[in-house]
Automatic annotation (TrEMBL):
<dbReference type="GO" id="GO:0016491">
    <property type="term" value="F:oxidoreductase activity"/>
</dbReference>
<dbReference type="InterPro" id="IPR002347">
    <property type="entry name" value="SDR_fam"/>
</dbReference>
<keyword id="KW-0560">Oxidoreductase</keyword>
<comment type="similarity">
    <text>Belongs to the short-chain dehydrogenases/reductases (SDR) family.</text>
</comment>
<protein>
    <recommendedName>
        <fullName>NAD(P)-binding protein</fullName>
    </recommendedName>
</protein>
<dbReference type="InterPro" id="IPR036291">
    <property type="entry name" value="NAD(P)-bd_dom_sf"/>
</dbReference>
<keyword id="KW-0521">NADP</keyword>
<dbReference type="Pfam" id="PF00106">
    <property type="entry name" value="adh_short"/>
</dbReference>
Length: 265
């Protein structure tokens, strides 16, 4: 699955999602934004996991207006789910509130990321920001929501999916262990390649978690599909900011990057 990015699914191939509930983190921009548009267009009730209410509401209004204009609004139902991935406690709280509010969760897309070339910083718990945002908080979100995802998987006609939007940056590192703060905070140098490797380290953790989760669910015969993917090279705010911060890469903004709808498909 991870290396099948050349197979682009068109919106016509997406199944009807009326009655389904989805969460997409980081949907106020980029690939997450386009993913929410797709899911809402197909009739799902979608929660945008985002840290800033103003940015979330603006993005929700944009998507609703776009779907209405194209005649595809399908009674789009998009809501803000407040969470800051830099703080795993806020993620746990958001997931707990969600479980109290919703009776099902069919699709969880861990999409949001810490998009920067570094230098990376420690958060309030002394953990590296890029590891917290890209792996620890998505881990907390997924594991807290797992009871509801499992429950949904027992319903008739369910097809529950957990998707980690990852990156081929994970191929830049090898690591022996993720156990303990020292290993989680491991950095690979103060250079562009070092920053990409440090980010890739967090993406590797993210992929290993989803693989291990699939193994665990299979062993319990729980019909949930866990996926990790690389979306391609997509023109987003994050990708553009990253390229602009590296002089010799800035020109790449002018060519070669695909649009968010293609990336999200
Ligand atoms: N674009 C590419 O070419 C490319 C390539 C490989 C992999 N990917 C992966 O694709 C995914 C989406 O990337 P993108 O290019 O769409 O990025 P993007 O445009 O920069 O969007 C990132 C999203 O993450 C959110 N986010 C960042 N920190 C957060 C936090 N602490 N709490 C909650 N939300 C937070 C941002 O919200 P704010 O507005 O609040 O910052 C934003 O909505 C990422 O996992 C990335 O690694 C992208």
């Amino acid at each position: 699955m991870f290396f099948s990015w050349w197979k682009v699914i068109t919106e016509d191939e997406l199944v009807d999602l009326h009655g389904k509930v989805a969460i997409v983190t980081g949907g106020n921009t980029g690939i997450g934004h386009a993913t929410i548009e797709f899911l809402a267009q197909k009739g799902a009730r979608v929660y945008m996991g985002s840290r800033n209410q103003g940015r979330a509401q603006k993005a929700i209004e944009e998507i609703e207006a776009k779907l209405q204009k194209s005649g595809n609004d399908n009674q789009a139902s998009i809501h803000w789910l407040q969470l800051d991935l830099l703080d795993p406690r806020s993620v746990k709280e958001a997931a707990t509130k969600f479980i109290a509010k919703e009776k099902r969760l069919d699709i969880l897309v861990n999409n949001a990321c810490h998009y920067s070339v570094g230098p990376y910083k420690l958060n309030q718990d002394g953990l590296l920001d890029v590891m917290v945002v890209n792996h620890i908080s998505p881990f907390v979100l997924t594991e807290t929501l797992l009871s509801l995802l499992r429950q949904t998987a027992t319903l008739e006609d369910s097809d529950v999916r957990i998707v980690n939007v990852s990156s081929t940056a994970h191929t830049q590192v090898t690591t022996e262990s993720f156990i303990g703060k020292e290993n989680l905070n491991k950095q690979f140098g103060d250079s562009l390649s070092g920053y990409i490797a440090t980010c890739g380290h967090s993406k590797l953790a993210n992929i290993l978690h989803i693989k291990q989760l699939q193994t665990r669910l299979n062993a319990q015969s729980t019909p949930i599909t866990c996926l990790a993917l690389h979306p391609g090279t997509v023109m987003t705010k994050g990708a553009s900011g990253f390229l602009n911060s590296v002089p010799f890469l800035a020109r790449c903004n002018d060519f070669g990057l695909c649009c968010c709808r293609k990336g999200s498909s």
